[in-house]
Amino acid sequence: MNISRREFLQMLAVASAAGVVLPGQAANKRSIPPNQIYELPAFGNVSLLHFTDCHAQLMPVWFREPNINIGVGNMKGNPPHLVGKHFLKHYGIAPNTPEANAFTYLNFVEASKQYGKVGGFAHLATLVKHIRAQRPESLLLDGGDTWQGSATALWTNGQDMVDATKLLGVDVMTGHWEFTYGAERVNEIIENDLEGHMDFVAQNVIDNQWEEDVFKPYVIKEMNGIPTAIIGQAFPYTPIANPRWMIPEWSFGIRDDKMQDTVDAARKGGAQVVVVLSHNGMDVDLKMASRVRGIDAIMGGHTHDAVPEPVKVKNAGGTTLVINSGSNGKFLSVLDFDVKNGEVRDFRYRLLPIFSNFIEPDVEMGKFISDVRKPYIKRLNEQLGVADEVLYRRGNFNGTFDQLILDAMLDVQEADIAFSPGFRWGVSVMPGEPITFEHVMTQTAITYPTATLNEVSGEQIKVILEDVADNLFNEDPYYQQGGDMVRVGGLKYSIDPTAKIGKRITDMELNGKPLDARKNYRLAGWASIEKREGTPIWDVVTEYIRAQDTVRIKELNIPKIKGLGKNPGLAEV
Amino acid sequence: MKRRSFLKGTVASSMLGVAASAGLLTPQSILAAWPKAAFEAKDVDDGMEAVLGSSDVTESGDINIKAPDIAENGAVVPITISTSISDVESIAIFIEKNPVPLASSYDLGPTAEGFISCRVKMGKTSDLIAVVKSEGKLYSAKKMIKVTIGGCGG
């Protein structure tokens, strides 16, 4: 299976006439040899490259996909709510292959050692150049959550990622975590850095005084003479999930009606292809695709779902392809349309995993990255401790890295109960690998990082858990926010994802005793959306790790899951 | 005041607001128009009886409610009600789970378009019910608006 970089480059140099094995076409289970993963002959006349939710990971990373990604209601068992073997079966991917490693948690440690780290902007740059060489008039789309997620992004106020995406050649982007640098900084970047290089689009952000567009709702770009509209859809619940005080004058929302008006306006303006660059989250994308007419494809992100095939959604105007391209720099989507007589006639699609071992890093991007990191390298590389098992975050309820953060909060802040937000970004650390300060920052680097400690009643704790659970498991995706369940330390509980709000959370216990609704408990947390001053969470976590030789996760606190029966979004590990 | 409803200038109660802020009406004359019972009713039916004279409503697909699915700020939730029903006499807005469900009621003049836009306050997740009165009959539509603690997203 091992293939040297030189061999791979030689293979890339040979224009392969052999067709790519497309999903669903192969009679046998799909297993694309590494030397063919990136062979993608040009097709049609409109080509869109898409990555999303890279969370500022300039360097290759380990990233474990979830073993719990539950779908409720009519989302049950449908993409993206498939994990592990269910995922492989649905897409006909053979186990123990590079693709199985990229798309699932199965055999994560061993398979990752075999195939290597994923992502990295220098590797992404090589791949983008390779794909675009065959598609000179293609567009590169960035779905957002690009300027946040790393120490260097935080310390440079997003500048490292702005410069990296410009160098990469991004044409159009939309946003979510970008807004957590505040309205002033976002405007400054758009005016000073992006102007003339990249369009920042969002049809669903309006100022709340006059209800006028804050950003360009869409742009029309021509490829091979075909006008193609890219409509932006920023994360609809930014002022709810993140601090509203940072963007006090902007209102978001899903805004289906305005999306329909925008699609109609783009078509009227001559667009023959209409693509939505979305940060809705996949379930919201699917619902939107069923309601809005005239969209050829939604290329989405936010929920970090890596989905190998488009979902074809029927609506009153025809069919819309829904695509979601994963996270943390692991994947590049390539969508080719064949457009004739003003209409899309056919398409080809591939979601390419970026295996850094199989791709030679781009020299220019590599130099840019090392220059950006240079002033901070000592601090980034500081080794805090070693983990005896794999540390990861993704999953509906908890991950080992989150458990480490919770253990640190309980210990350092002397709390009864700890809450850590259900973010979906944050890389993995392999067993025996030193945990660096940079690793901790991939889990915590936000602009509102203050660690908090509050006296909170048992009743309030129940209300918070119910509220967050409804944001994850509401049967109507328009009422979801796209994060995972708040991670809980100390407190045990049961959850029935299929129940209604107020009825999901039961059996709450602390140290073997039922939680008292009227009693107050010391609750540690971080990432409050209210203004808070104080110690940042990464100081709490680093203090805890430094105090021990080997970090042991004593118990991964996952609630007892009730009411689901068999669900392909749930796998015991 | 919202620009759109100001520019339209056809909504009776908006005009009332303009007149009041321009000092044309004394507080007493505003209070005289205050439907006290309607704003004291604790449930939707009583509120409807008090302000519209009946709670006998028919659901209608011709009423469009534009409102967020999840409120960004429960204290000021922007909503727009529009309808293609003809001869609209009034449009009333109820927030079912508010302590006083009636949020506002607008009497429209004969030439007015069936359109109002305003901001309402919501304490918790609730259905918003829009009731349109036309030729003495009541028509309604509803939409759930979620009010959440927030945080923890993404």
Quick summary:
By secondary structure, chain A is an alpha/beta fold. Helices cover 28% and strands 21% of the residues of chain A.
Name the CATH architecture of the largest domain in chain A. 4-Layer Sandwich
CATH level 3 topology of chain B: Immunoglobulin-like
Quick one: CATH class of the largest domain in chain A? Alpha Beta
Distance between the termini of chain A: 27 Å
Query: pLDDT below 50 for ≥5 consecutive residues: which ranges of chain B?
Result: 1-29
In CATH terms, what is the architecture of chain B? Sandwich
* Percent strand of chain A: 15-25%
β content of chain B, as a range? Answer: 25-35%
By CATH's scheme, which homologous superfamily of chain B applies?
SoxY domain
Number of extended strands of chain B: 8
The rough form of chain A would be described as: globular
Cross-sheet strand order for the largest sheet of chain A: 4-3-2-1-13-14
Radius of gyration of chain B: 16 Å
> Largest beta sheet of chain A, briefly?
6 strands, mixed
Mean pLDDT of chain A: 93
Write up what this structure looks like.
The complex is a heterodimer of chains A (573) and B (154). In chain A, a hairpin with a 2-residue loop joins strand 21 and strand 22. Chain A folds into two domains: 321 residues, Purple Acid Phosphatase, chain A, domain 2; 179 residues, 5'-nucleotidase,  domain 2, CATH 3.90.780.10. About 4% of the residues of chain A have low confidence. In chain A, helix 7 packs antiparallel against helix 12, helix 14 packs across helix 17 and helix 15 packs antiparallel against helix 17. A six-stranded mixed β-sheet of chain A has the order 4-3-2-1-13-14. In chain A, strands 6-7-9-10-12-11 form a six-stranded mixed β-sheet, with helices on one face. Chain A has a four-stranded mixed β-sheet with strand order 18-23-16-19. With 573 residues, chain A is of the alpha/beta class. The longest helix of chain A is centred in the C-terminal third of the chain and has 16 residues. Chain B has a single domain, classed as SoxY domain (Immunoglobulin-like, Sandwich), CATH 2.60.40. Chain B is built from four helices and eight strands, in the order H-H-H-H-E-E-E-E-E-E-E-E. With 154 residues, chain B is an alpha+beta fold. In chain B, strands 1-8-7-4-5 form a five-stranded mixed β-sheet. The chains are: A alpha/beta (573), B alpha+beta (154).
